[in-house]
Specification:
mainly alpha; 17 helices; Growth Hormone, Chain: A; 421 residues; 2 domains; globular
């Protein structure tokens, strides 16, 4: 097999592993009735069970990135998938809340390498000018696949039950693990194709993990990417549906269908933005333009009149330009030496995930409660004014994209003074 064919096959398998981890994340939401009946769970216990995966997933981002640098993507992805198969069987057979939570925590640990591995594969197997495109395609692949999985997973659970669907998913994880072990490779045979190292490999500090952790450029880029990601994780993942239901005067089921515009636009935007910003000297400008567009659309969405057209357009714009977070990760790749890129991706994904998920969700939730909503009531019972008060945190949070975008523009310009891609 040629390096080109091997690179595409390795990228495809890494993307499938990332998509499958998205399936694992969604699994409890597709079997809520079965979990409530089998384990006698209430709403609070169900929320704890669901969140247990994300806690261990985020905590293990940095260790998984370190393992990727030490052992290579092939071994880590293979082990991750095989252990995930074990975790899925455990979760499907759990007969108590404690056992189910333990299984979900383990699944978060086992699935943690999926994203940094996919990013590391893209940086090693494809030239610098193609990295943003490939990472965008990975995100597009995951989002579109996630939409399809969201439609198919409930039917799978209904047909096979909690145990049957779990065993089937475990079989898929086992297949992916074997594919990683026998098909993928760590890097091309003729050497590294990705961006050249930005650090001097002769300097021990530049090669250290500490140098990565104290690099302010990585933290700014990761925080900036997290704001983009909040469009998918915080708005698209929770608060967007009740907001659209109230703003447009439609039922939650139809609002969920409208919300699909954000995910579809994001799936289109990620690779297209990466293509436009293929040359490093353009990335800062594209990143800044995406920041302005996404921030402006968020204010239109939250504060526009009840006219449907501006709301639909704003959904398309924030979804499309949220895919620019791939450019933030491209900057992380550009400033870190090759032997530390897995660790850097793990650190960036940790910061990105916290900002885009728990931090933004907490701020928006507190905004709704402070506006007078009942903390113990359903979010669907809140008024439009109360939900809008929560989403004000979302809009003003995305406003930070613009000043941070200017700062990253300067960082990208400094990087272009080095070797041109």
């Amino acid at each position: 097999m040629t390096d080109s064919a091997r690179g595409w096959s390795t990228w495809l398998i890494a993307s499938l592993c990332l998509l499958f981890q998205f399936v694992v994340q969604l699994q409890p939401s597709a079997m809520i009735p079965a979990l409530e009946a089998d384990l006698s769970l209430g709403a609070e216990e169900l929320g704890f069970l669901t969140s247990s995966y994300f806690i261990s997933y985020l905590v293990c981002q940095i260790p998984s990135g370190w393992l990727l640098d030490r052992l290579g993507p092939r071994k880590v992805m293979a082990a991750s998938s095989l252990l995930t198969a074990f975790g899925l069987v455990w979760f499907s057979l759990a007969e108590s809340l404690e056992s189910a939570v333990g299984a979900r925590i383990a699944l978060g640990v086992f699935g943690a390498p999926a994203f940094p591995a996919a990013a590391l594969v893209a940086s090693r197997w494809f030239a610098s000018r193609r990295f943003t495109v490939m990472l965008g395609l990975t995100e597009s692949f995951t989002l579109l696949g996630g939409v399809l999985v969201d439609l198919a997973l409930p039917g799978l659970v209904e047909t096979g039950g909690r145990s049957g669907s779990g065993v089937l998913l475990a079989s898929i994880a086992l297949f992916l693990g074997l594919a990683c072990a026998f098909i993928t490779r760590d890097r091309p045979s003729r050497g590294h194709l990705g961006p050249p190292s930005a650090s001097d490999p002769r300097d021990p500090f530049e090669r250290s993990l500490l140098a990565v952790m104290v690099d302010g450029r990585i933290w700014v880029a990761a925080f900036h990417g997290g704001l983009f990601f909040s469009v998918i994780a915080a708005f698209g993942g929770l608060w967007g549906v009740p907001f659209l239901s109230l703003r447009l005067g439609i039922d939650p089921a139809r609002a969920a269908h409208v919300m699909a515009l954000v995910f579809i636009a994001g799936a289109l935007g990620a690779p297209l933005i990466g293509l436009v910003a293929a040359r490093r000297r353009l990335r800062g400008l594209v990143l800044l333009a995406s920041s302005i567009a996404c921030s402006g659309a968020a204010f239109v969405l939250v504060y526009a009149t009840d006219s449907e057209i501006p709301i639909y357009l704003a959904l398309l714009v924030i979804g499309f330009f949220s895919g620019a977070y791939a450019l933030d990760l491209a900057l992380v790749v550009d400033v870190v030496a090759d032997g530390r890129r897995g660790f850097a991706m793990g650190l960036a994904n940790l910061v990105l995930g916290i900002v885009g998920g728990p931090m933004m969700l907490t701020l928006m939730g507190r905004g709704i409660v402070r506006s007078g909503a009942d903390p113990s009531g359903s979010v669907l019972e809140a008024s439009l004014a109360q939900v809008t008060a929560g989403l004000a945190w979302f809009a003003w949070g995305l406003a930070l994209l613009v000043p941070l975008g200017f700062l990253l523009l300067l960082v990208n310009r400094a990087l272009t003074r080095g070797p041109r891609d």
